[in-house]
Structures are given as structure tokens and as C-alpha cells.
Write a structure and sequence with these properties.
Helix content is about 30%, strand content about 20%. It has a seven-stranded mixed beta sheet with strand order 9-8-7-14-15-17-16, with helices on both faces. It has twelve helices and 17 strands. The radius of gyration is 21 Å and the shape is globular. It folds into two domains: about 110 residues, Rossmann fold; about 210 residues, Rossmann fold. The longest helix is centred in the middle third of the chain and has 16 residues.
């Protein structure tokens, strides 16, 4: 099933650990996996290629910045670069910066290894495989997790087209009779546009917590009465949540409760889908809410039982989401839904979606 043997030995054999990217998660990652759990040696420094920093200055108290010249003086045979930026697109800079001889993994490899080395979590994946409806889903969930642990960045064999619809689980909205679409994590509106192109008379109720992206969406859809926008974050109760819009990375790694140094932070309101139970009947719900998917689903109990919409839930934001979201949907709604997994990017780390299709 999930193989974690020898991973830790492989990581510990490197004399020089270099972190690449002064992302928002570096401090926690370093303390948790190096200092506390000792999964890798103390890094010799951090390489930053998206912002200029003087060699010898410090990102953290004991983590000096390194330049590319500094890194190229180090033996690549005995060195491991761990990508710690919020975005994984630093892979595109490997050739440009002549780092291709170095051993390079993303920090998610270590995070996933640490989670799935636990037998209980491995066993949860075994149970998940039995729950999923088709062989393709079973293959995807296991291979995708293994890819991340093994540092395999791309895998075209797992990729399917059509996130949320126009795929082999949810076909064209017209054919599926999907007229109303509830979408959380609207971002720049690309999936709203896709839906409206495939359903000319369709209606969209979209959520976007970022003030900046929300204002852009308002301007974009100002003349479209069939698009309703809400500047809040889906949750399981009414609550004020500190949100970071991560504008330094164009909003691609936005999250809840992140330090202000990495972008604009402000409070947003939590919103329960159940509030819409008698106001907007969605035929399709898609959730891409940066790791808050479980809370969003818990806030939709009444809605799901009454309307039984098709659900498309992103499960790739954390290692545990790969089993806890499936466990929850099976526990609460096994009589309503069949469960499937599809991978919508050739990049192993992202765009993994749990499809809940009414029986």
C-alpha cells in the first residue's frame, strides 16, 4: 500500500540541507520536522530566488540567507534542497538556476512521510480504498500519496481533464441537468466562466474571502445577474476568521491564521451553507477552501440531506485530508453518495478532488 520504508535514512544521509524559499510555513516546518522530530539535519541556510537578500543576513535567528553563488560552491552529491516556498512552482526555476544536479524535494514529501509512517494512518488509506467506488479512484489515492513521499513531481498517468465537470464522473452540465452551481474559493473566476460557458442559463453562487480577489470578481461580473458573490469563507458556524490573502504569491497560497509578514491579513466572516437551504438550490457544489473543506461540509448537513447536490471536494491541501474527508462523507452520507477520486493536474501535489455522486 503506502511505502515509507527507508525514507528517513535517505534524508539523513545528506550532510548539507538547504531550504529553498522563505515561505510562510518555514518556521513551523523547521521547528517541527528538524529540531523536534529530527527528520533531517539542521539546515545550513535558506536560498531565496524570488526576492533579493544579502548573503549573511538572516531569515530566522539561526537560518542565514544563501545566494546562488553560495549554493553552487557546495557539493551537490552531499546536499539536499528542500523547497519550502508556499508555491511549488520553484521547480520551474531548477534549470534556470542550474540546480539540476542537486537532490531536490518539496517539504510536502517530509510532511506526508511523517503522517503516513504512522500505521494507523496507513490503515486508514487501506479502509479508504475499500470505500471508493471504482478501481481508478483506488489507484489514484495510493499512487498520488506515494508520489509525494517519493518526491515524484509529475505523473501524467493519473491526470484527468475537467475539474468539477466535463469528466467521467460529472459530465457536461447540460447532460447532467446542472443548472445551479455553488462554488467556494472562486479566486479569479476561471471555473465560474467554465460553468457559464457550458450552461448558458445557469446560476452561480460563489464565495471568495480575499477582499482583493472579491473586488476583482465584482467588477468582472457586475453586469451578470446570474452570478451572486459573497465575501466570506465557508465554515461550520458563524465565526470571525483571520485570513491571509497571500498577495505576495498572487493569492495562490491564501490561508487562515497566517502571519501578516507574508501578505495582507484581516478578519473574514464564516458562512454556513445551511443558511442557503431555502434560498439557493445548487445541483453542484465545489469546495476549494485551502484546507477548510471539512468545516465547510459540516456546515452543510441540512443542505446536503435536503438537496443532495453533487459534491466536488478538494482533498490535497493536507496529508490527513486524503482520508478524513472521505471517512467523514462515508460515515455521514453513505446512503446518499458513491465516492470517487480524480486527479486534475499532472503535478502530483495538487488538484485532487473527491467526487460525491448521488446514488
Amino acid at each position: 500500500m503506502i511505502n515509507t520504508l527507508n525514507f528517513n535514512k535517505k534524508i539523513k544521509k545528506f550532510d548539507n540541507i538547504i531550504l529553498w524559499g522563505a515561505g510562510p510555513h518555514v518556521e513551523f516546518f523547521l521547528k517541527e520536522y528538524s529540531y523536534k522530530k529530527k527528520l533531517f539535519k539542521k539546515p545550513i541556510g535558506i536560498l531565496e530566488t524570488t526576492r533579493k537578500n544579502k548573503s549573511g543576513s538572516f531569515f530566522l535567528k539561526d537560518l542565514p540567507y544563501l545566494t546562488l553563488k553560495d549554493v553552487h560552491k557546495i557539493s551537490y552529491d552531499k546536499s539536499l534542497i528542500i523547497i519550502t516556498a508556499g508555491l511549488i512552482d520553484l521547480h520551474s526555476q531548477i534549470v534556470k538556476n542550474q540546480l539540476y544536479y542537486f537532490n531536490i524535494i518539496h517539504k510536502k514529501s517530509i510532511e506526508y512521510y511523517d503522517h503516513f509512517k504512522n500505521k494507523k494512518n496507513k490503515d486508514k488509506i487501506k479502509k479508504i480504498v475499500k470505500i471508493l467506488k471504482d478501481k481508478k479512484s483506488k489507484k489514484i489515492i495510493v499512487k498520488k500519496i506515494q508520489n509525494i513521499i517519493d518526491g515524484i513531481f509529475t505523473d501524467n498517468n493519473l491526470k484527468d481533464n475537467g475539474p468539477y465537470f466535463n469528466n467521467d464522473i460529472v459530465q457536461n452540465p447540460k447532460r447532467e441537468n446542472i443548472k445551479n452551481f455553488l462554488y467556494a474559493g472562486a479566486f479569479d473566476g476561471k471555473h465560474i466562466d467554465r460553468f457559464l460557458q457550458n450552461s448558458k442559463n445557469g446560476k452561480v453562487f460563489a464565495f471568495e474571502p480575499s477582499k482583493i480577489m472579491f473586488d476583482k470578481l465584482k467588477k468582472k461580473y457586475s453586469k451578470q445577474t446570474n452570478v451572486i458573490l459573497n465575501n466570506s469563507l465557508l465554515y461550520d458556524r458563524k465565526i470571525r476568521l483571520k485570513f491571509n490573502d497571500d498577495q505576495i504569491n498572487k493569492g495562490l497560497s491564501a490561508s487562515i491564521n497566517r502571519k501578516t509578514v507574508f501578505g495582507n491579513s484581516y478578519f473574514v466572516e464564516g458562512f454556513k451553507i445551511d443558511k442557503l437551504v431555502n434560498k439557493f438550490k445548487a445541483d453542484l457544489i465545489a469546495l476549494d477552501v485551502e484546507g477548510s473543506e471539512l468545516n465547510a461540509i459540516k456546515g452543510a448537513r441540512k443542505y446536503i440531506k435536503k438537496h443532495k447536490p453533487i459534491l466536488c471536494i478538494c482533498i490535497y491541501h493536507t496529508a490527513k485530508d486524503h482520508h478524513r474527508l472521505i471517512e467523514y462523507m462515508h460515515l455521514k452520507y453513505r446512503n446518499i453518495y458513491n465516492l470517487y477520486i480524480r486527479q486534475h493536474s499532472y503535478i502530483s501535489y495538487i488538484e485532487t478532488v473527491l467526487y460525491c455522486k448521488p446514488k
